[in-house]
UniProtKB/TrEMBL annotation:
Keywords: Membrane, Transmembrane, Transmembrane helix
Annotated protein name in UniProt: DUF7901 domain-containing protein
Pfam families, per the entry: DUF7901
InterPro entries: DUF7901 (IPR057223)
The keyword Transmembrane is annotated on this UniProt entry: yes
Transmembrane stretches, start-end: 25-45
Native organism: Candidatus Accumulibacter vicinus
Length: 246
């Protein structure tokens, strides 16, 4: 349930519903990978945070996602998102973000399995914002060690999950809603289908560049990239941080 619902629940409110059942679909996912490096990226998609907005938990047992579409084929070099905590983060377990991008399953929902996934640690920066409960909002910048290409005019879904609750059951991370209006998606576990909720869009931004790549590979099924071993190739983090004001 969201932070606002947590307050309402004390007065008899109902929690966020359980994920609806949706069908699997093995649609081809068009994906290209490039090892090009350099500080050429700009903001290619954004849903900016809004102070005082509600926020929804996104942890291992309550996962969330939001959709995005590029107007043209785009090489992605970094991601930024905003969120808050159930307590002072210094008193909780260290962040353990799992960030994934999903193709559409054919029914307007994210595919169950991710097409690409990252477990690299982002840079966390305090902001001057607070969520609906008054908790401090933080910005997270993740510079990718290699660029990957997503096809334009196709719906994809970004999921940001902080798995730090695995080591600390009392830890909850909340993804802040943005200034945009629309639906978001949720599920209870990685093997579950996604349900949808018309409570608003989450705050995040994508850094990259519209491009005309070489052959874009049609991959039957999914490709999971665990890039922790490529940390030595990480792009300069300043390229991402400088794109956003605090």
């Amino acid at each position: 349930m969201s932070k606002r619902e947590l307050e309402d629940d004390d007065l008899g409110g109902s929690p966020r519903g359980l994920p609806r059942s949706i069908g699997r679909a093995a649609l081809p996912f068009f994906f290209g990978l490039s090892l090009i490096s350099g500080a050429w990226a700009g903001v290619v998609f954004k849903q900016l945070p809004l102070g005082g907005n509600d926020a929804f938990p996104s942890i291992s047992t309550a996962q969330t996602a939001d959709d995005f579409v590029f107007s043209a084929t785009t090489a992605i070099s970094g991601l930024t998102w905003w969120g808050s905590y159930s307590d002072d983060p210094d008193k909780l377990s260290p962040d353990a973000f799992r960030v994934s991008i999903h193709a559409d399953d054919g029914s307007g929902h994210p595919a169950i399995d991710p097409a690409v996934e990252f477990t690299l640690a982002p840079t966390r920066t305090p902001t001057r914002l607070a969520d609906v409960s008054g908790a401090d909002v933080y910005r997270y910048d993740l510079a990718l060690p290699s660029h990957f290409v997503l096809a334009g005019r196709s719906t994809f879904y970004l999921s940001v999950v902080n798995e730090f609750d695995v080591k600390d059951p009392d830890a909850t991370w909340y993804w802040l809603l943005s200034d945009a209006v629309g639906a978001n998606f949720y599920r209870a576990a990685y093997v579950d289908p996604w349900g949808d909720d018309a409570t608003g869009n989450f705050s995040f931004a994508i850094n990259g560049k519209a491009t005309t790549p070489g052959p874009i590979l049609p991959l039957p099924g999914t490709l999971v990239l665990l890039l922790s071993g490529l940390a030595a190739m990480t792009l300069p983090r300043g390229d991402v941080r400088s794109l956003f004001s605090r």
